[in-house]
Amino acid sequence: MSWILTILRSSIGKKYIMAVSGACLSFFLLSHLIGNSVSFLGKEAYNSYASHLHSIGFLTYILEPFLLFVFLVHILTGITLFIENLSARPNRYAVPGNERNWSASTMPYTGIIILTFLLVHLLNFHFITRTVSTAELVRTTLSNPFLASFYLFSLSGLTLHASHGFWSLFQSLGINHPKYNKFLQQGGLATAVIIGTIFILIPLLIVTTDSFLQ
Ligand code: HEM
Questions:
Q1: What is the 17 CA–ligand 1 centroid distance (Å)?
Q2: Number of folded domains that form the chain
Q3: Which of 50, 75, 169, 182 has the smallest number of Cβ neighbours within 10 A?
Q4: In this structure, is residue 127 part of a structural domain?
Q5: Is residue 213 part of a domain?
Q6: Rounded to the nearest whole angstrom, what is the distance from the C-alpha of residue 85 to the centroid of ligand 1?
Q7: Is 149 inside any structural domain?
Q8: Does ligand 1 have an atom closer than 6 angstroms to the CB of 158?
Q9: What is the pLDDT of residue 10?
Q10: Contact 135, 49 (CB under 8 A)
């Protein structure tokens, strides 16, 4: 068991935990994105996808508790690393050229935006008593301009967080070579922008059209 404590105490170990938990969350995000993309095929297809999802008991009893655990690990380790970094660098970036890029330095703040989004999102779609279909629920909820704006803002934060997260994940897992680093960085950014844009299209189409999910 002592090796677990050693990993938890070391900075590299924590970065590894962030990478592995981040990879698990990325898989969830990707599968959630694919599921929600069915909404572009219309209301019937989206409702049929959602009812298939509900019929899989494995998701509720195994995958949801696992997802919650991974989220908690990612958040708590992230907070610990943030505090350690703050105390390790009292004179931040005293050496010119040592500044981190914008998406890297905003990671804790975009993380808070995602956490707030998740709480609101689960209250909107998960912790509710269902009286209408999933398509109707999503359409009605996101027709509220205030909530739609909040989704657009939060999903932009998610895009920024993921753009650095993907790159950081490669670094922490040792997938790193001067020859390919630019490609990995730009690939991470492109993947995050694609994911963010597809999610953003849903509230955007709801508030700007009368026909989406109708
Ligand atoms: C516009 C974008 C999104 C839409 C329309 C959407 C829609 C939904 C819906 C309808 C559910 C309930 C699933 C069901 O039980 O039928 C759900 C659950 C959930 N969503 Fe989203 N989602 C979006 C974005 C996101 C994002 C970006 C995240 C993560 C950062 C996320 C995380 C979750 C989680 C953790 C659940 C609970 C999982 C579960 O019910 O098993 N969603 N979402």
A1: 24
A2: 1
A3: 182
A4: yes
A5: no
A6: 32
A7: yes
A8: yes
A9: 85
A10: no
How far does Cα 107 stand from its chain's mean position? 12
Cα-to-centroid distance, 129 and ligand 1 (Å)? 16
Ligand 1 site, residue 66, Cβ cutoff 6 A? no
Mean pLDDT of the chain: 90
- The reply to whether 81 falls in a domain is yes
**Which CATH number do you get for residue 74?**
1.20.1300.10
Q: Output the pTM of the full model.
A: 0.91
pLDDT band for position 90 (50/70/90)? low
pLDDT at residue 93 greater than cutoff 50: no
Ranges assigned E (strand) in the chain? none
Lowest mean pLDDT among 41-55, 73-87, 96-110: 96-110
Query: Any residues with CB less than 8 A from the CB of 11 and at least 6 apart, and which?
Result: 81, 84
Is the CB of 189 inside a 6 Å radius of any atom of ligand 1?
Answer: no
Query: What separation in Å is there between the alpha carbon of 84 and the centre of ligand 1?
Result: 32
- Would you say 205 and 143 are in contact if contact means Cβ atoms under 8 Å apart? no
The answer to whether the CB of 213 is under 6 A from ligand 1 is no
Residue 3 corresponds to which amino acid? W
